[in-house]
Design a protein that fits this description.
Keywords: Cell projection, Cytoplasmic vesicle, Glycoprotein, Membrane, Neurotransmitter transport, Phosphoprotein, Synapse, Transmembrane, Transmembrane helix, Transport. With 668 residues, the chain is of the alpha/beta class. It is built from 20 helices and 18 strands.
Length: 668
Amino acid sequence: MDDDGRYRDNDDDDYAGVPSNDGGYYRNDSRANDEEGHSDSTEGHDEDDEIYEGEYQGIPRAESGKAGSMDGVTAAQAQQFRDLSAYEGERRKDQEELAQQYEAILQECGHGKFQWTLYFVLGLALMADGVEIFVVGFVLPSAQIDMCLSEPNKGMLGLIVYLGMMVGAFLWGGLADRIGRRQTLLISLSINSVFAFFSSFVQGYSSFLLCRLISGVGIGGSIPIVFSYYSEFLAQEKRGEHLSWLCMFWMIGGIYASAMAWAIIPHYGWSFQMGSAYQFHSWRVFVLVCAFPSVAAISALTTMPESPRFYLENGKHDEAWMILKQVHDTNMRAKGYPERVFSVTTIKTVKQMDELVNLGDGAAWHEKWRIKLTTLFHQNFSLSSSYYGLTVWFPDMIKYLQKQEYSSRTKVFVKEKVEHVTFNFTLENQVHRQGEYFNDKFMNLKMKSMVFEDSLFEECYFEDITSTNTFFKNCTFIATLFYNTDLFKYRLINCKLINSTFLHNKEGCLLSDISDENNAYMVYFVSFLGTLAVLPGNIVSALLMDKIGRLRMLAGSSVISCISCFFLSFGNSESAMIALLCLFGGISIASWNSLDVLTVELYPSDKRTTAFGFLNALCKLAAVLGISIFTSFVGITKAVPILFASGALAAGSFLALKLPETRGQVLQ
């Protein structure tokens, strides 16, 4: 940098430039547009020694014989290999120089209004990702009634979002390195919002499953693109802290989803139907409202520019310079220094090539990529399987504890005789054994968790009955009429029907779970608290990320999370499980923030979102496996999930030590 603050390098022809319309100078890529048409392999040769172009490409001259043709091919291939190695070396040198200069440019632009505006815009996209995780879990209790979902169908609906996000992370991460961060994010969010909108209206299970799958594919690009995009506008001393602050929007997404579910789904009056073929209940309103963050992110993102670092990596230097000038001018005006001029006139060019290049001296590029990907994969996999597995296991354990407590209050009646009695009130949580019922009427009532065993019903009348988890086992019905009930024959297990009739049965589903408003509110409240508990961990990690380093934060959080898992053994009540959920979420969030920052900083700009997307896809795969494993042990034992989670987190804390520290380094 000379006295007037302009970036110059008189010894490097790459900085030769041509004046632009606004007086700035841009690099003229003379190598790409060489008027002489000579390659590096032909420079310095006289006319007698000049290599024939076709021979350089491995094609013998017409007059050369067969004996000399093979030697010509071998020599040409060897020359091409040497040229490629030299080309890669120059490209690495260009990238290193660009990284240093880009950091200096960001320092000149400062951190201010532009970065904070982009922070809130990208935060909406990250918020949409957080919402997507919770949507299906919140609507399942209601959707299973409308769609008559079996237990396997409910399980598939719960996992389909993660499978879609896994595909989306891999797809959009790779595409963002090809066509740009902003454009790819707009496409992915558009797909998410469109199919989230459709899913609120479709009626069948298969259609809803497909819409949620494609919606998940769309939102899968959010995390890898958002963090890469934002990091390329942040200077070195701000990167760790502000990427951690950005993580808070995932928490806000969870809070938004919980609050909307609490406010909308229990209001069954918010519905309409057209005949019996089309129904639109309150849970569909909730699905529609959950698409709003994605739509808002799309609208806001259209006002923001592409990443200048992406443009520089792809040879679009004029566009990059204009964006960096916009960042500088926006920040300076907001700080009260509108007179300050953006002093950069030339920006380093990086040679363009399609192949992956060496990431450093002394080892092949594929070896260094393999080491980084393998280590980060193991770290992501261990954290994802533990975090998502425990996150889903906690609510299921709470439900299991609720059922146990509910069962402990079951009333049992043995050998009762009831004659000429009309039951028109709710019957709940009772077991009747060896009872006799003669000329009794059961009318306009609900049966919840009722079981009749070895009982006799003679000349009884059942009308307008709605039942949940209700069964008749080894019972005998004589001259009994069932009118407008949902007591279908599959609720009658090993029963005898003598002169008994079913008329106008209700259409509906056999529900095996207790699904009332109180339980629904409890699910939303637990999710709300669990998400809100992340806030302290987010604040601490943001304030300390650039002070203690990424690796210490990652290893320390993993160790403490591992220790907290052992306290799960003492969670034998609802309140204890909720407290442990909040503790685990608040601690483990620091590990997630550290991994996000490390992943951004470990990979070069031209492969950053590809690597991030690949690792995020593996996270979702680990989530699917963790959820499947943990939920299978609900009600059986707590030891296996606790040991699995603790072991995975312990392995993750060990693997963290194998990663390089990136604090204080320029963005590659």
